[in-house]
Write a structure and sequence with these properties.
Helices cover 61% and strands 1% of the residues. It is mostly helical. Helix 5 packs antiparallel against helix 6, helix 6 packs parallel to helix 8 and helix 7 packs antiparallel against helix 8. It is globular.
Length: 274
């Protein structure tokens, strides 16, 4: 097995390990803007653990039954009898999205990035940012909200880490275009927000800063490709939902998942080409 394949395997393991921690954060962050972050499981038991309860599995050991996978949605609280054996590691109630599914998706995303990027320095940046992208996608899908504690640090972290990667040999991108990409895409979405605020939220503008930095690393072509791909993904999906009568034509749409999917596609293609 060559080095690139070993990197992909290691990336998949990393993605799976970090992905296990994502559902708890998704559950805690999936609230309306005027509400505080959740600090208790659906049954009311306090969430505790590392980093003031933000790190850990989405499972409450005080509950006697598991919670459905959609319990992380606002307004969905309930219990069903699906508890593991007493005293086992699986005993207790799970909440938020399905942990195995999220871990698998995060692992696949990280493995794909590793296969496209190889062992170049920017791979470490992609692997650190990818789980945050998965987290943002899930939260935005649930409550149409992109929390500031994620979007703004995402942009700042992307620029700082890419700046460090640019100092290492074999880096395939440019930090200067990453910075300009963040300003350009953030400015574009800000202008769109001013013209038609009903079409997107200010969280999308903040997210655009980070995605612009990631795409700009590989140049202006990558920035255009990733932005265009996100628009296509969103248009196709929304059109399909309307045709299937699963959504109204003018219903609010969470843009974050499409923006992130487009950026992911752009990075994959440009990283491979580089």
């Amino acid at each position: 097995m060559d080095l690139d394949l070993w990197a992909a395997v290691a990336a998949a393991v990393w993605g799976a390990a970090v992905g296990v921690l994502v559902p708890r954060a998704v559950y805690r962050l999936s609230v309306e803007p005027e509400e505080a972050w959740r600090d208790a499981c659906p049954a009311g038991h306090p969430i505790s653990g590392l980093a003031r309860g933000w790190l850990g599995r989405a499972r409450c050991g005080s509950c006697g039954a598991a919670v459905p996978a959609d319990a992380g949605h606002v307004g969905h609280v309930g219990l069903v009898g699906r508890m593991g054996p007493a005293g086992s590691a699986d005993a207790g109630a799970s909440y938020g999205p399905s942990t195995p599914v999220v871990a698998l998706v995060t692992a696949l995303v990280c493995a794909a990035l590793a296969l496209a990027t190889g062992t170049r320095p920017e791979l470490a940046v992609w692997l650190l940012l990818a789980p945050v992208g998965v987290l943002l996608t899930l939260v935005d899908r649930r409550v149409q909200r992109l929390p500031d504690p994620l979007t703004l640090p995402f942009a700042g972290t992307a620029l700082v880490l890419l700046g460090a990667a640019s100092l290492l040999p074999e880096a395939a991108g440019e930090w200067r275009t990453a910075l300009f990409g963040a300003l350009a895409l953030g400015g574009f979405y800000f202008l769109f927000f001013l013209i038609r605020p009903i079409a997107l939220g200010f969280g999308d503008v903040k997210l655009a800063l980070g995605l612009g930095a990631v795409l700009g690393w590989y140049g202006w072509g990558a920035l255009f490709l990733g932005t265009f791909a996100g628009s296509v993904f969103g248009s196709v999906h929304v059109t399909a939902l309307v045709l299937l009568r699963r959504a109204e034509r003018r219903a609010p749409v969470a843009l974050g998942p499409y923006m992130i999917a487009g950026a992911f596609a752009g990075v994959l293609l440009e990283a491979y080409a580089a």
